[in-house]
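Form P-L/3: holo structure prediction, ligand adenosine monophosphate.
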Amino acid sequence: MYHWHRVLHDTKSMSQEAVIASAPRVVDPDRMIHPDEARATIFRYLWRLPMERVSLREASWRVLAGDLVSSDDQPPFPAATMDGYAVVADDPSPWREIIGRQSAGYVADLEVSLGTAAWITTGAPVPSGATAVVPVEATELADDHVIVQQDRVAPGENIRPVGVDLAKGSLVLQRGSLLGAAEMGLLASLGVDPVEVARRPRVSVLSTGNELVEPDETPGPGQIRDANRFSLIAALQEAGANVIWAGRGPDDAVALRSSLIERIAESDVVITSGGVSMGDLDLIKPLLSELAQVHFRRVFMKPGKPFNFATSSDTLIFSLPGNPVSALVGFELFIRPALRRMLGASQIDRPRTRVRLDHTVRPSDRIEFQRGIVRVDSTGRLLASTTGLQASSRLASLVGANALIAVPPGVDPLPAESHVDAILVGPLATGDDEKDVDTTGS
Ligand code: AMP
Ligand code: MG
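OUTPUT (holo model):
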């Protein structure tokens, strides 16, 4: 019997490389494998995307391709952190002559000495000779001189020394960093433009099924609209992929075959949905066997048991089941980390944590990733509840969900207050949001 949470904790202490090396080679692609083995198998076939140079304004949320070492000191000059007067700190003079002004953006020709002070603004370079800045609130102005409260002047006070924010030669950002707001600001302040980032993986998405029509079409008898192409495009964009092609195909061996050949040739990653079950119109399975090397087909999990992973030279092919929730859960568990890994991202996985069930959960015969909402209560506990009916066709079970709750396989219901693992796919909810928000306008 598999115990997903135990395996998870075992592998946590190992490096990613060790996990990969420990994975047994899949000899029989039809053997049902554990999710951890599926992941490790995929990871053996991943390769690192090359770097490319992009202009800084296009670099947000990309992955940095190399370590960034500071080429400058920040600030490059001692700078005032307050509006006030630059003075000599241990000057015993009862009052000081104001010798001029130094505001931000240039260097005035000023030399502060005993008995003198220079008016200065925040961010301005501290004139030579000055050893402190007295805030304007601690001063009194009289004609052309200023009286300072002596107890408010200590050496170095209100001066940002050279290199305090960033020292020249120091490691600023590590390779694999995600370029969010702070990282973008750092790159800009160091003048890194263009910036070297990992090229985005080129991904094609193919929905298969005779029953599928476009979102703007009215389905005829027995038809439904293609949901997976659009949910997968959004998931791919969030993961940092470049969707170069997305389309739809019928359950027709000739059409699917030529479409797959074309997609494989032009893509780093091909994702298909549908056609991997046991029906005689499930044509993806035999086509993969013909066009690629299939590594596994079935994973011991719910939803998403039929999950095909194959490679054709460098191209990775993931064939997901057609049920919309199965497709997205498979994407989340296996494809997203694979893409993040190919990008060289230092963080490839979502956070995982133990949570306390709010209510009874009925397990299945496989590891089940139930969609749920994890919220933190006022005492800091993480509480989880599921999003209602967990049918693999019910996309609504993923709407608003911030977690995949890993329910170990079993027979007996897990009572409320049991602890289980959860993968956090979105921000934590808080228990009492509603109470904090006053909508009455009073
Ligand atoms: P399949 O994996 O092809 O056997 O499909 C399983 C179920 O998912 C069937 O009910 C299909 O109609 C449905 N399905 C397949 N592809 C899609 C899609 N792209 N969007 C929405 N539902 C789909
Ligand atoms: Mg189908």
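COMMENT: DSSP finds nine helices and 28 strands in the chain.
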